[in-house]
Fold:
Amino acid sequence: MSVDIFNGGKLIPLMEQFYTIQGEGFQTGKPAYFIRVGGCDIGCSWCDSKFSWQSGRHPLVKVDEILQNALNAGAKSLVVTGGEPSLYNMDYLTDVFRSAGLDLFLETSGAYSLSGKWDWICLSPKRRNPPKAEFFAKAGELKVIIQTIDDIEWARENAEKVNSKAKLFLQPEWSERDKILPHILAFVKRNVEWRLSLQTHKYIGIP
Structure:
């Protein structure tokens, strides 16, 4: 019989937690409490949080404690990112944070099953493990990381799958931003349904 080390979602492997200003995508500029869960098996070469990949390196932390930290910080919204949050059951987490009055935002590749009730889902699909259909149907935004010109066409393929209300963003991969940004700008000007996303938090030096 398997042991539920996550205690029905009341514990999560936590890499870090902090209160900051959202730096990218549709929610840019909004204050939010961030939690970065440990664990991801997608393995993007350009990932800026590779330390999160191995869930066993990160302590199991009580969701209730994280909620109290968010409330103590004065946060009104929560962003769950990773790692890959869809690896875990988020039902308990979203229930208790919603009961406390926080808005709930998820950032995910959509590679595994959706759990929890979210106010906004930022879907950032990855080639190595594409999203499940349920994420395309429920995403508030599609944010595709662009490392090479070929990624722009792949972004268009994903846009054909996402729901009609989802906001569309192209975001330059940080280490290639100077080289790829001119191609993104040219594409967005020709395809006005798309928007440019920048990692503004890195430019201004906040988490």
